[in-house]
Specification:
This protein is mainly alpha-helical. It contains 21 helices and 13 strands. It has a three-stranded antiparallel beta sheet with strand order 3-4-7. A two-stranded parallel sheet has the order 1-2. β11 and β12 form a beta hairpin. α7 crosses α8 and α18 packs across α19. It binds one RNA strand through β6, β7, β13, α13 and α20.
RNA sequence: GGAGCGUUCGACUAAGGGUUAGGUCACCUCCCUUUCACGGAGGUAAUACGGGUUCGAAUCCCGUACGCUCUACCA
């Protein structure tokens, strides 16, 4: 790189940040950090009708949770601000004027109604060379008419004048050479009637002013790339233009098409990074964070969706990702989102994460379930016992709640079919013998005691283990029975046995 | 309709002229575990189609099909 790498993520603050958005951020971030460059957050809030309060803060919070904090943003300042496009209005006007003066853009006075009508009349209408002269603009109208309209403050937009015949060719880092015959593209609006720029003008101007060296965005932008390239040529020169990369899309798991919020609701998985509540509808959409994902796992999973380092390695820390990332190894085709695989990544990361750190992360989940944790050290011990069987942080609740409170229900139905009087007698004796053990016996001693007693009662330990488990846990799952007893200790164990015995005899 | 982009197991992908087309998730079987998991060992399963080029093609070329994206004074 001849100059310092600068990349940007430029979302519009219209709602929650979904998978595709986060992955775009991630690839930007990885690329920047791999090259020792800077990552900028720019807020594209030029559409006042779609602005949603709180969305900008949400984006920043999400980036922080993911560990993808920008070097420059509306909040963290920087030398190229402001970082909100709504605050840069005057800048765009100036460049739009320049384009007009150079003859690369023109005023258009058509009202939205005019356009709607025209679209109805002309099938596949495009505001371009073919119909430009039939419309109301500074090319079709006489100079005096135009200045008259302008003088009267007639609402108008500024449109780019696409050349009649020109082939736009550029090299996309992921896709290679891409060519467009511009005769098929229309005269896009650059500056709206309210004076705000459209995306097309704003990206080009801001990327230039913010010295962006590499511009990455979703594949959905590819068809409008020629407009941007033309603008670069007219305004700043192609030699200043950033290198482009159009990222593949993240698709629905079933069928095809872009993954949407609806798919998540329908199929029962998150699509947004974090919980998002719409301020107007008050509707909350669940996020990966609240669903129980570790940010490391979320990032790891997203990185592997469309990229790999060429080896079989799948679990990467962010540092490893930064070191290994290479945009040229990004896939061209879209990737279907697979929630099962996402959970597998999370499970791997749970296994990898220190129990103390998990304890901190888990606390809010337990709080939410109103499960009281009296001792942190006890929580850490329990985490060690159950972490292997948890895919999500929320799994810890079901996997470990019985360590903190007696199970609400006992699955006696699973015990009853093979229940008999001599087993009842055994458990009564077991409670008794546990009572006689002093202090906090270890799992191995508890097991020895249990087996001796079973032998004395002439019952196979195997026939007794499952009922005992159910008495303690409530159902057929969890770590080793004697590990559980060691953890919850004798008094609680006896209480649970006795309680279950009552339930069993009181059928 | 037009333009652009894409297409390897069910999913994510490796293999950039020569491999029994590999790995991971999911699924199935077995082992471990007197539970559920974890772990271990196996298994099922793919180059969209048709033409070239070549001694040899998943890989290069052409066509076809299919899919997706865009086609707003939204991004």
């Amino acid at each position: 790189m001849d100059s310092k790498v600068r990349v940007r993520f430029a979302p519009s603050p219209t709602g929650g940040l979904h998978l595709g958005g986060v992955r775009t951020v991630l690839f930007n971030y990885l690329f920047a950090k791999h090259h020792g460059g800077e990552f900028i957050l720019r807020i594209e809030d030029t559409d006042q009708t779609r602005f949603v309060a709180g969305a900008e803060q949400y984006i920043i919070d999400t980036l922080n949770w993911c560990g993808l904090t920008p070097d420059e943003s509306p909040l963290h300042g920087g030398a190229y601000g402001p970082y909100r496009q709504s605050e840069r209005k005057a800048i765009y006007t100036q460049y739009a004027q320049t384009l007009i003066e150079k003859g690369f853009a023109y005023y258009a006075f058509d009202t939205p109604q005019d356009l709607e009508e025209k679209r109805k009349q002309v099938p596949n209408f495009q505001y371009s060379r073919a119909h430009r002269m039939e419309m109301k603009n500074s090319i079709s109208l006489s100079e005096s008419e135009v200045s008259e309209l302008l003088k009267k403050n007639t609402p108008h937009v500024i449109r780019i004048k696409i050349p009649d015949e020109e082939e736009v060719v550029f090299t996309d880092i992921i896709r290679g050479e891409v060519r467009f015959d511009v005769s098929t593209v229309d005269d896009k609006v650059l500056l709206k009637a309210d004076g705000m720029p459209t995306y097309h003008l704003a990206v080009v101007v801001d990327d230039y002013l913010m010295k962006i060296t590499h511009a990455f965005r979703g594949e959905e932008w590819l068809p409008s790339a020629p407009v941007h390239i033309l603008l670069w040529k007219y305004l700043f020169g192609l030699d200043k233009m950033p290198k482009w990369a159009h990222l593949p899309l993240i698709l629905k798991p079933e069928g095809s098409g872009k993954l949407s919020k609806r798919d998540g609701e329908r199929l029962g998985f998150p699509v947004f990074a974090m919980d998002w509540s719409d301020p107007t509808t008050k509707e909350t959409t669940v996020g990966f964070k609240e669903k129980g994902f570790l940010p490391e796992a979320f990032i790891n999973f997203l990185a592997m969706l469309g990229w790999n380092d060429g080896s079989d390695k799948e679990i990467f820390t962010i540092e490893e990702l930064i070191a290994a990332f290479d945009l040229e190894r990004v896939h061209k085709g879209g990737a279907k989102f697979d929630y099962e695989k996402a959970k597998w990544f999370n499970q791997e990361w749970i296994k990898k994460t220190d129990n103390k750190i998990l304890a901190d992360l888990l606390q809010p989940f337990f709080d939410q379930e109103k499960i009281e944790i009296h001792e942190r050290s006890y929580l850490i011990k329990v985490i060690g016992l159950v972490k292997d069987r948890c895919h999500l942080l929320t799994d810890f609740i079901t996997q470990s709640s019985f360590f903190f409170t007696a199970p609400a229900t006992i699955d006696t139905a699973a015990i009853l079919p093979k229940w008999e009087e001599k087993k009842h007698a055994f458990f009564t004796a077991l409670a008794q013998s546990f009572q006689e053990m002093s202090g906090k016996p270890l799992a191995a001693d508890l097991e020895a005691n249990f087996k001796t007693l079973a032998a004395a009662h002439e019952i196979k330990p195997g026939d007794l283990l499952l009922p005992l488990r159910i008495m303690l846990v409530g159902s057929k799952f969890g770590p080793g029975v004697f590990d559980i007893i060691e953890a919850i200790e004798i008094p609680d164990t006896i209480k649970r046995i006795e309680h279950s015995l009552q339930l069993l005899s009181g059928k």
